């Protein structure tokens, strides 16, 4: 793992695990000191996190953890509830044993992360499962849109989700894969809709911010 990737994963993990809450400032100088790298290196990582909507960078103000509003959280999940089930019939046109094996491997990885209480990894893996599934539909326009919605959902889950938001409480992805293998389109659409609605209902909207974060203690091991 490269140094940039290590820093990216550490900051992302801190955001997802609420050690860096929504709205928390991310000063380049303090982060570079904590990680023992240049401010340029930190800036690259913050820019990557900004592209994924986890961080906001404002001119002359620096970076801070994005704080999605209650309305944004609802709109993002409602959009996914509307679109993702509708892609199931097109997806089934491309579904085969190879796809099934690939997604079952992803689902297994999700379960392992959940069992190890790796919340940041769980959120990343569940997002990947959904946008990779959308890709199978063959509709690249909608697939790219869903990928962006999944990134934004990851931030929302990081800010307002619970462990139940990405765990089996919202439904095991292997249940969906069983339905796809059996070509049960209507049931698969219902499962996806229920799954996403459960994720939405699991959110706990909270705007707590702590500006007195000790980055040295947080990131120095």
TrEMBL record:
Pfam families per UniProt: FCD (PF07729), GntR (PF00392)
SMART domains (alphabetical): FCD, HTH_GNTR
Matching PROSITE patterns: HTH_GNTR
Assigned keywords, A-Z: DNA-binding, Transcription, Transcription regulation
Span of domain HTH gntR-type: 1-68
MF terms in GO: DNA binding; DNA-binding transcription factor activity
Stored Gene3D superfamilies: GntR ligand-binding domain-like, Winged helix-like DNA-binding domain superfamily/Winged helix DNA-binding domain
Protein's name in the database: GntR family transcriptional regulator
């Amino acid at each position: 793992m490269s140094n940039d990737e290590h820093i990216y994963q550490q900051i992302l993990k801190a955001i997802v695990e609420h050690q860096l809450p929504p709205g928390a400032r991310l000063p380049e100088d303090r982060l570079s000191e904590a990680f023992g790298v240049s401010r340029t290196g930190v800036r690259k990582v913050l820019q990557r996190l900004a592209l994924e909507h986890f961080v906001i960078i404002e001119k002359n103000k620096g970076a801070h953890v994005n704080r999605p509003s209650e309305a944004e959280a609802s709109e993002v999940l409602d959009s996914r509830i509307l679109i993702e089930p509708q892609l199931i019939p097109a997806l089934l046109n491309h579904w085969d044993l190879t796809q099934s094996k690939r997604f079952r491997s992803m689902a297994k990885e999700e379960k392992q992360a959940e069992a190890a209480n790796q919340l940041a990894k769980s959120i990343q893996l569940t997002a990947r499962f959904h946008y990779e599934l959308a890709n199978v539909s063959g509709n690249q326009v909608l697939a790219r849109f869903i990928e962006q919605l999944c990134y934004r959902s990851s931030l929302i889950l990081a800010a307002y989700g619970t462990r139940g938001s990405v765990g089996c409480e919202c439904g095991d992805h292997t249940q969906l894969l069983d339905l796809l293998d059996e070509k049960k389109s209507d049931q698969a659409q219902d499962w996806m809709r229920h799954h996403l609605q459960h994720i939405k209902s699991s959110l706990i909207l909270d705007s707590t911010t702590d500006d007195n974060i000790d980055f040295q203690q947080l990131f120095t091991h």
